[in-house]
Amino acid sequence: MKILVLNCGSSSLKYQLFDMVNEEVLAKGICERIGAEGSVLTHKPEGKDKYVVEKPMPDHSTAVELVLEALIDKEHGVIDHIDDIGAVGHRVLHAGQKYSASIIVNEDVKKVVRECFDLGPLHNPANLIGIEACEKAIPGKPQVAVFDTAFHQTMPEKAYMYAIPYEYYEKYDIRKYGFHGTSHAFVSKRAVEFAGLDPDNSKVIVCHLGNGSSISAVVNGKCVDTSMGLTPLEGLAMGTRSGDIDPAVVQFIANKEGKDINEMLNILNKKSGMLGLSGVSSDFRDLWAAAEEGNKRAQMALDVFCYRVAKYIGSYIAAMNGVDAIAFTAGVGENDHDVRKNVLSYLGYMGITLDEEANNVRGPERYISTPDSKVKVMVIPTDEELKIARETKALVEA
Ligand code: AMP
């Protein structure tokens, strides 16, 4: 079966087409600047040259149509007919408290995605448009919604409740939800397999460190805590997000600078984190380069980042009363050996010892702790699209 995976962002649409016989990617690509001037589709068919289409994309429906055209294009396509696509898997940001697993899309599911517009104002509307565009373009094909929040729904009340008046939970479902769930699910499972742990007796911490970053604590395959919250703003310091902060800071700056709450949230989401601290970049490669040239703010931003990752790991070891394995993943977690080394330097008390040589090597899944380390530490590349394709196949064939 061939499965199309769609990830609709506020102004972008990423896609991959899988042949599930051998889980091979046949083509992938991205539509950018949807709804703006200069929309562009970059299509990368496996084994063929990149194909760039510059056409107006006023909305996600047009983008979906262009993606389907590219997939069946005589020269640049990878399938003969749209009907060759057996099912579509959609990455959907927020399901509130409704779904703790992926689900085949029907009218009820679309209603829940719509009801969660408030909780995911940038992504859920785009996700729904993507679903409806596929219903129109390839009618009758099953579609599956894979939610970013689903994996974290197993968190206990003590982990997800905010200590604010209970009525806000009752009235508006205000609580911690967590994100990157597909990645945390994929990587925690792989970590258990890779380390040969007993799936029913395992404690794993996943550090998904990318432009957006989050950490999760996973006991026996079930998430018990995670660092992102009602929105992806909570938790670690990130590329441009502040992460945890005293909420009173918002009022303080707003009063001093004459800003309203929306401007403040924009600052915390887009102008803070590594970018705000360093004044250099949100990209870790730029930060290390600047730090090496003696830029103290870039070094400070990196120190803040690593310190907070280490603190979260420490708190999750306490939450789980121990840990068997720690897995690093995503752009920074997979590639940045200096970040991993810095983070692990705080955890010597746990009997964690870094294998410097293994840490410095780029590559696939691997241990970066020494064989005698009390906790196994590893790098596990994440693959959210493959996970979405697998979940889609499993539900469609069930
Ligand atoms: P992601 O959000 O998972 O795609 O991660 C993207 C981020 O990973 C980029 O913004 C960079 O900060 C970081 N990154 C990617 N490649 C490297 C690398 N080779 N070394 C350090 N950081 C990297």
Are any ligands bound, and if so which? Answer: adenosine monophosphate
Radius of gyration: 21 Å
* Alpha carbon gap, first and last residue: 14 Å
Number of domains: 2
Examine the coordinates and then state which fold CATH places here, giving the name of the CATH topology of the largest domain. Nucleotidyltransferase, domain 5
The counted number of beta strands is 14
**CATH top level label of the largest domain:** Alpha Beta
Characterization of this structure:
This protein is α/β, with parallel strands linked by helices and 398 residues long. It folds into 2 domains: 2-147, ATPase, nucleotide binding domain (Nucleotidyltransferase, domain 5, 2-Layer Sandwich), CATH 3.30.420; 199-379, ATPase, nucleotide binding domain (Nucleotidyltransferase, domain 5), CATH 3.30.420. It contains 15 helices and 14 strands. It has helices spanning 60-72, 107-115, 124-137, 157-160, 166-172, 181-195, 248-257, 261-270, 273-278, 284-292, 296-320, 330-335, 337-344, 356-360, 384-397, and strands spanning 2-8, 13-19, 24-32, 40-45, 51-53, 85-92, 103-104, 143-147, 203-209, 213-219, 222-226, 325-329, 366-367, 376-379. An 8-stranded mixed β-sheet has the order 5-4-3-2-1-6-8-7, sandwiched between helices. The radius of gyration is 21 Å and the shape is globular. The mean pLDDT is 96. The structure holds adenosine monophosphate. Adenosine monophosphate (AMP) is lined by residues 210-211, 239, 283-285, 330-332, 335-336.
